[in-house]
Amino acid sequence: MAENPQAAAGNENQNQAQFALQRIYVKDLSFESPNSPVVFQEQWKPHVNLDLNTAHTKVSDNQYEVVLSLTVTAKIDDKVAYIVEIQQAGVFLVSGIDGPQLGQMLGAYCPTILFPYAREAIDGVVNKGSFPALMLAPVNFDAIYAQALQRKQEEAAGEAGAEQKTH
Question: E strands, the chain, where?
Answer without folding.
Answer: 18-32, 47-58, 63-76, 79-95
